[in-house]
Write a structure and sequence with these properties.
The chain has two domains: about 350 residues, Neuraminidase (6 Propeller), CATH 2.120.10.80; about 35 residues. Helices cover about 10% and strands about 45% of the residues. It has a five-stranded mixed sheet, with no helix packed on it. A hairpin with a 2-residue loop joins strand 9 and strand 10. InterPro entries: Gal_Oxase/kelch_b-propeller, Kelch-typ_b-propeller.
Amino acid sequence: MNSNLLPLHQKINQRVGHIAVSYKGKLLVWGGYMEFSDPSESETHHHATDELFVYETHSEIWERKLLKGDIPPRSSGGCGVVLGDTLYIFGGVVRAEFEFDGNTNDLYALNLITMTWSLLKPKGTPPIPCEKLVGWEHGGKLYFFGGFGPIPDRHVFFQYVIDDETGSAWNNQFFGYNPQTNNWEWPYVNGEPPSPRAAHAGDKCGHRIFISGGRLKTVRKNDLYVLDMDTMVWSGNINESAEYVPPGRSWHSFTFISSHRAVLYGGFSTYNNVLNDCWILDIPSSDIPVLKLPPALWREFKLPYDFGEPRCAHAACIVGVLFEGSCDLKEPRMVVIGGLTQPFYETAMKLKDHTNVMLTIHFRPLTLLRLSLNAALKYHKKNRSLWETLPHSLQALLTRRFSQIYP
């Protein structure tokens, strides 16, 4: 099947192993693949890498941007980090025209102003090629942790655990990239780091990065580590003595919704179940040294019973409408894009079913304007004739949203 023939909402939502990041209050979605459950179709289709989907959070409208330059090969499982007006993509599993080429350690940069790709050639000792890792920016540099890939072919200063089935390995490599010097960097860290893992989740709050869960061999972990980027000290597992801890998982999301609160959502359990739970983590003061952090404080956030299908291998971002002249957000909400699901009675790894809709979790009441727009669209059969009485800007907004919801 040609994915270009799919309706826009399916083309955007039916993907896994993709990149989804926030940029100036917008959501950017790129890459990944989709599975076909129809036996007559090829099992996997990788999405084009010369296109980027941009979600405008104010209008709630998607826009497709065509990209140029050094177009990356089709891939999945890479890591995307935004620094300034550039989206950097590292690693993943590269897809050749008819076969998988394997893991890569290539680093690409997409200029978000000109929509032009560049293949970078950093100096220094390169990282091991890998997929299913996490990354973030700090102090004008990029940093990456963990992943799954080939066994190192040189002496390394990080740990790795070999997978007997594939001959590849989980690792806990921690490395950086300096755009100013175009150099790979290997920071020296203290404290107890997380064990090797892949398909973990992470996000940064201030000068601290939080690493949650992930898979090592047959175990999907329920631990939580904090790295202070200013002192380069790991905290050790702060879930170890916590009173309540979310069940172990991989392929989940961990996303900060404010400077003192993070959200863990979904994932794949040790018992091969796709999860649909949501947990809130309250963050202690950043003045407390990481080696003295108290046990993690978790509480489950109850979602409506009809919230949506369970999902794993999704991506989640905090988005909102920018205050004028500021980078702060109003109407912050967590958007969950893509991923795989399974019937509730399945307990085996038969993950062929894609989720079809984007989920939005609101942590504050919607504004009156957004409630009114949503109602106008929901009851369009009754009120469509009245739209022409609205200001032209609202007419245009409703018309564009209507065309995407009811193509």
